[in-house]
Amino acid sequence: MNKYLFVTFHALMMTLCVICSCIREDYDGDLLDDSPIIITLYQPNGLGDLAYNDATYRAVQSLAQSYGLRTVTVERATYAECVNYLTERLTTGNDDGIKRLYVILADNRYDGFFTEYDSLIMNDSHTKVLAIGNRRTFTNIHTIDIRSYGLFYEAGLILDEMSDCQRVAIVTTDTISAYFSEYTQGLCDALSDPVTTDVIHIDCGDNENITDLMYTASYGFDGQYDVVIPMCGATGVLRYNREHVRSFSTIGTGADMSLYSTCVPFSCVKDIYGILSVSVGEWLSGQMSSHHAYGLESGMVRIVESPTYKELIDSMIRNSHQTAIDKENEKYN
């Protein structure tokens, strides 16, 4: 019976790029030309996660190169500092005529800020604000909902076919958001009764290193779980996998993580480049939608198999994909 139990590395070039971009955070004050600018606010200490934040960084840089845009990378140590940054930057005038798109990797911790400041945030021909990972609609904030139910339902169907998968752990720092409920429900709805599913809550203060916490926690996962799904701090789990090649399997989340460990059979991937390219194109054309929602049927979220498991996982995807799409459509429609 399914149950809930609430209980590094950086590539050199990525590090150099991030350092250079962070140095240019105040580039707005000394503009060399009038090219549009994408200012991206990442999750606190998020860059280097090999997942959602790093995938967004690569997408932003690629789009900037394609469209001739400038970029500003903003990373803060805590959510409180992120909110202070947004309050300062988004509620003051912009009269230099330069187009700016503020991209926020949002989660439920920004809901209070969005509600309080929505009417005060700039939303004119020069300045737009895009919150990725928020399903609400606002007056001045453009939002993108990346749905996870169908994606994790399909992941559950695949895990259910794996004979060595009897105990699954979902590890997260967030047990209250709608997204948490969505991906855990999708997974548990697909898994059969013999497979137990525990949700392990990692208590991570704003100033704690989630990567180190997850690495340490992995010693407790080993021998207790067959499969670990890290919704946070995946870098630490993958490091443990590399050091203990006969340990549990890890399901990649946010991006394809098969490059970082042979213990990753597949990943639940968000195509951040594809998602961002739609909104950036709309922004540059002056016709930016107030809200987009992307689920399994859109192709913007999908299962990506590792090369080692490709033949096996491909067969499972063929058997499960349409079923998962139908289940997700049924949930939202």
The count of helical stretches stands at 10
Helix content: 25-40%
Number of β-strand runs: 13
Strand order of the largest sheet: 2-1-3-4-5-12
Spatial separation of the terminal alpha carbons:
28 Å
Major sheet: 6 strands, parallel
Secondary-structure element series: HEHEHEHEEHEHEHEHEEEHEEH
* Shape annotation: globular
Q: Low-confidence parts, pLDDT < 50 over ≥5 residues?
A: 1-30
Give the strand content.
15-25%
Structural class: alpha/beta
Radius of gyration: 20 Å
What do the pLDDT scores average to?
Answer: 88
Please describe what this structure looks like.
40% of the residues lie in helices and 19% in strands. The protein is an alpha/beta fold. It has a 6-stranded parallel beta sheet with strand order 2-1-3-4-5-12. Strand 6, helix 6 and strand 7 form a beta-alpha-beta unit. It is globular, with a radius of gyration of 20 Å. It starts with 11 loop residues before the first helix and ends with a helix.
